[in-house]
Write a structure and sequence with these properties.
seven-stranded mixed beta sheet, VC0802-like, 2 domains, Rossmann fold, alpha/beta, elongated, 14 strands, single chain
């Protein structure tokens, strides 16, 4: 059985620091942080725990190896030199599910996939006495990244991307990915005892991710992963312990003030259903409400939202009016903070002030900015008064 190994966790570009902090907090040593990926050292338990607990990663990969390749012959030889037999059993189903190439001489994904598959077969024939692999067993998908002719090869322990928590059966037209929503919340100082309002909640993703955090509910505790079937790498007992740990940590008695508004009745209904599937419906209040009616009696709250960008959903000429409304309503929220992800370039102008921070984040292939308009910090509580 493989003991300590190098593991890789890809994420949205711009969110590497948040993912690094998550892996640090889980107790694993970081090896490298690069664009869209964090590499760390872990064991079988780490594979289970990071898959179950990470709110911001896309997936968890076992790093099989890396090498330089300037030609397809180099790619074949480099792939063949990797110890595939340590990971894939004789009946395993194995293939290169994704190959990405940036600034490299090898750029055809289909050629990369077929050459690597041939090299893997040839290597494994040296260990297993078969002429043909039937591939009737468990799945072992491979992911390959080529950057400036350096090939990095990873075995995908996750399967469906980690953003698929399992609660979002119904979605809005342009939903924000669950792991991106979680990362945005983690980029703010919001905590469970503070108010959070999303006035464009759509299918409820931001409020639901906030409620999962408030209840200390692991986002992957109700789904399975590729490596659940890899007994020789991650024993069934390790998975059981990791799932049990996650269930033991849940606290649904936490008091919250998390609200989601949407102008569409159907979206409010979908949000409630998704929150119920996530097990946090009692921690969130959803209602049909226009952004023009955004208000709250409490102070020091947070608006965290993903408003329309003016690309498809809203007509471009009307988008400025919408951001004017957001700005006007925000001015009325005494001492609140506003955090907003958008690709709309004139957002600050319409909000009426320059953001305290703005961070570039890629939402899929679209470059967006996460604007932070910070309110004052709440006064510290006097601990001597109970």
């Amino acid at each position: 059985m493989v003991q300590r190994m190098e593991l890789m966790a890809p994420c949205h570009f711009g969110l590497e620091a948040i993912l690094k902090r998550e892996i640090d907090d889980l107790g694993y040593d970081i090896v490298k942080v690069e664009d869209g990926r964090v590499t760390f050292i872990g064991d079988a338990e780490a594979i289970a725990r990071v898959n179950i607990w990470s709110r911001t990663a896309e997936r968890v990969l076992i790093k099989i190896g890396s090498f330089m390749a300037y030609s397809f012959e180099d790619l074949y030889q480099g792939t063949k030199a990797l110890p595939w037999e340590e990971y894939i059993p004789s009946d395993g189903k194995f293939w290169v599910t994704k190959a990405s190439s940036v600034k490299s001489k090898l750029f055809s994904p289909s050629d990369i996939q077929s050459i690597m598959k041939k090299a893997m077969v040839d290597r494994m024939k040296e260990t297993y006495p078969v002429q043909r692999f039937e591939e009737t067993g468990e799945a072992f998908p491979i992911r390959v990244f080529i950057m400036k002719d350096e090939v990095t090869v990873g075995l995908d322990t996750t399967g469906d991307s980690l953003h698929k928590r399992g609660y979002r059966k119904l979605t809005a037209k342009a939903p924000i990915a669950e792991n991106l929503a979680a990362a945005l919340i983690m980029l703010t100082p919001w905590r469970a005892d503070r108010v959070l309002v999303d006035p464009f909640c759509g299918s409820g993703t931001i409020p639901i991710e906030a409620a999962l955090m408030a209840a200390n509910m692991a986002p992957g505790m109700n789904r399975e992963f590729n490596a659940c079937d890899w007994e020789h790498i991650v024993p069934a007992r390790t998975w059981k312990d990791a799932y049990d740990e996650a269930r033991d940590m849940v606290d649904l008695n936490v008091e919250t003030d998390i609200q989601g508004y949407d102008i569409d009745d159907e979206m409010v209904k979908i949000s409630r259903e998704n929150a119920k599937l996530a097990g946090v419906d009692k921690l969130i209040h959803f209602q049909r409400r226009s952004v023009e009616d955004l208000s709250h009696p409490k102070k020091y709250g947070f608006v965290i939202c993903n408003p329309p960008y003016g690309e498809r959903i809203y007509e471009k000429e009307k988008i400025g009016e919408l951001y004017d409304i957001i700005g006007n309503r925000y001015k009325e929220l005494d001492s609140w903070s506003l955090y907003m992800i958008t690709a709309y370039e004139d957002a600050e102008k319409h909000i009426g002030r320059k953001a305290d921070k703005n961070r570039k984040i890629y939402n899929g292939m679209m470059m967006t900015r996460f604007y932070s308009f910070m309110g004052p910090k709440p006064p510290k509580r006097d601990k001597s008064q109970g």
